[in-house]
Amino acid sequence: MILDVMMTEARKILFYLIPLKVCLYCRLKVAHLDNIFLTRMNWANVGGLSGMILTLKETRVPKCILSGPPQLVSCIVFFFFCIVQSFLAPEYEDETMVVQQVPLVHPKKGTFLVSKAKELGLPIGNAAIAPIITAVKNGENIVFEGKEILAEELCTPPEPSVVFIVLECPHEGFIDAVCENSTLLRYQQDNPENSVALIVHITPDSVLKDSRYKQWLESFGENTQHLILNENCKSIHHLHSYRIQSQLNYIHPKIFPLLKNHHPSKEEEAEFSVPVTQGECLLKYQLRPKREWQKDALFNYNPAEYVVEALQLPDFQDSVQTCHESLSVKPATSETRNCYPEVVFLGTGSAVPMKIRNVSSTLVNISPTQSVLLDCGEGTFGQLCRHYGDEIDKMLCNIAAIFVSHIHADHHTGLLNILLQRHRALVSQGESHNPLLLVAPTILWTWLRQYHDNCQEILGHIKMIPAQFLKENANVFKPNAKVYIESLMEKCDFREFQTCEVRHCKNAFGCSMVHKSGWKVVYSGDTMPCAALVDMGKDASLLIHEATLEDGMEEEAIEKTHSTTSQAVEVGMRMNAKFIMLNHFSQRYAKIPLFSEDSSEKVGIAFDHMQVKILSYIKLYKIIQGDFSPSVSNLDSQLTPYNTI
């Protein structure tokens, strides 16, 4: 998903939507965002809509206008189950710009010449000057003390209108329609009044290489700049995540592997005879006063520099050395036979994505070829790309099932992109059609159906198992569900997959997976301490339990139906879990919540992109002591503050 922002003096206009986490990593604030324009109703375009609207609400933006295809109304209902006030005008206009099929920026009024006004004796510094300024900026002559003064004497000439085009041509089937579009044709003529400053092409490389599209693009001439936004973008969007992971990798390279930069296309890019620029994260094009590219904000990724930065912090090197020594004892050979399950934490924060922690998602690799995804918050696909790089398609094909614990945005809004990307990966890998098994509350089917009916066909990619059908002694009255449950057990080599209702919102579930080899992984989802979860998870090999709030915040935990760290640990102890991983931390904590120094060595704290196997659990407690020491936490305070653009 790609962000394209046009900013006036005090406003932002957004064409296209992105996950909120990208805004945070790119240091882009949304306080002045008041217009969002969508080019089509596709998940790549609208996937960030729910998170963006919730963020605008939290930041108290008074009004934001959404414009797009007719299905936009149904899309908003699909996200929020709300009533939408429609506005069906063919174009949008305000004091700064007109948005039609081709965006037009209004002429910029000239600058009032204060020094010249003083020479002519005008009342500078007096309230009487305000209507004079307004008049001359509008090109009107004025009469002052019986003398006519021409507008051009007091004001610089206005800057002409600026035209830029945001064009999405998603595949070759649209090329003829683009090339023959009458509105676009008039901007290809040699007419200064209709010259285009910039065209943003949201266009795959296969379209750019098509001779029809290439000829059409080059017909705009050398004075038009072209910005390409597609799969060939190689810039890093989440620099802070790469930075922290590089430092953690220095402590333990296997538990904290270096993140990768995914490059989907290996082919040479299309070449053109006119100015064409490939998009990069935070690349800007200035339309006024001077037309130019601005690259001063581009990211520069240097892993070695980040390690040196950490080593310069007080006590960091000593802490790392101590950690390495404590981890140097190797396990007995008998303990190394089985390295599965492997758990990869893709999102360990709650509510909204932040620069350190993404929202809920945990990948459980059952074998080299089979995986289960536990929850799927916004940005999960991006996290998978950063973790697996060019192996992403293989990993997507490995995902046999997804468990969605409940219908809150931080747990399910990444699902559709995973389904679409998995289908694409199956095709690219030459795999047969293989619908994914989805275990979730039944209300999720309504959500998926709404999207299927109004945006893209999606239901053919999944086989739905209602979560309540996997409760102990449940009555599975739907024949298809029985077949799907049997398929889940067979595909994943499970002896048992069980759910239970937990103490959060209505229709919230936890789950337990028991493998034929004997291991048992229990996932709490969001919940207060829950007896049903304890009973279901008895003698778990691993409990992954939410710990949203720190100790001392029990009242808030009750109010928000979450658990504190000690409550989560206690659940694991009552369950007799061999190891307890805490996750789903409030984003108020920069890296780690306050944690008892007396905590058990059976307890670990999840961190985004942490990758642990059975033999890694015992190492986690010692890593916490060095890895998340105050010296490392101080890195956050040295980061560049967010931009306010």
From TrEMBL:
Query: InterPro entries per the record?
Result: RibonucZ/Hydroxyglut_hydro (IPR036866), RNZ2-like (IPR047151)
For this protein, the record's SUPFAM superfamilies field holds: Metallo-hydrolase/oxidoreductase (SSF56281)
Q: State the compartments where it is located.
A: Mitochondrion matrix, Mitochondrion nucleoid; Nucleus
Pfam families cross-referenced by the UniProt entry = Anti-Pycsar_Apyc1
Q: Where is the signal peptide?
A: none
Q: Which GO terms describe its cellular component?
A: mitochondrial nucleoid; nucleus
Could you list this entry's UniProt keywords, alphabetically sorted.
Endonuclease, Hydrolase, Metal-binding, Mitochondrion, Mitochondrion nucleoid, Nuclease, Nucleus, Phosphoprotein, Transit peptide, tRNA processing, Zinc
Q: Which superkingdom?
A: Eukaryota
Which GO BP annotation is one of this protein's? mitochondrial tRNA 3'-end processing
Describe the task this protein carries out.
Zinc phosphodiesterase, which displays mitochondrial tRNA 3'-processing endonuclease activity. Involved in tRNA maturation, by removing a 3'-trailer from precursor tRNA. Associates with mitochondrial DNA complexes at the nucleoids to initiate RNA processing and ribosome assembly.
* Family designation: Belongs to the RNase Z family.
Full protein name: Zinc phosphodiesterase ELAC protein 2
